[in-house]
Amino acid sequence: MQNLYKGIFAGAILATLSCFSFAENGTDPLVGKWKTIDDRTGYSRADVEISKKPDGSYEGVIVATRNIPGTEKMVICSNCPGHLKNKPFLGLPFIWGFKQNPDNPREFNSGRVLDPIGGKIYKGKARLSASGKHLNLRGYVGVSVIGRSVTWIKY
Questions:
Q1: What residues contact residue 79 under an 8 Å CB cut-off, 6+ apart?
Q2: Element at 59 (helix H, strand E)
Q3: Each residue's pLDDT tens digit in the chain (155 positions)?
Q4: Quick one: which of 127, 134, 116 has its CA closest to 80?
Q5: What is the sign of the dihedral through the CA atoms of 58, 101, 42 and 155?
Q6: How far apart are CA 96 and CA 109, in angstroms?
Q7: What dotted CATH number matches 31-154?
Q8: Local structure of 19: helix, strand or coil
């Protein structure tokens, strides 16, 4: 009988911890998998998994890639700078350093965005849609006016 109580107690603790873990991820709409959409072609080029780091910043890592029809699939970041050069696209940090704006929780600033095709790193900012299903990501040089925006779709 005592073993039965221990089993029920252990099960209750595991269920409670699972609920806390789910609630933590459920309350942060930026965390999760996103399908990137190329602004020039309209095709989905990659899937990115965004996570929140212990310092409160966000990082996105490429978890899947696709080629544009009629082109060869790229697997190595041959144009990437520094320690990222010649790394596989899968597992590559693609965005990092984004911090949530305390005045507007749907805005994320002060980030960096890697263009893995061109190999350049840009300043970045992002804004979640009201539904939390679309992310408008802007990479820019100097001021935000000089740059490009892409929209990602959450899985």
A1: 85, 116, 117, 118, 119
A2: strand 58-65
A3: 444 333 333 333 333 333 333 334 457 999 999 999 988 888 898 999 999 999 999 999 999 999 888 888 889 999 999 999 999 999 999 999 999 999 999 999 999 999 888 899 999 999 999 999 999 999 999 878 888 999 999 99
A4: 116
A5: positive
A6: 10
A7: 2.40.128.520
A8: helix
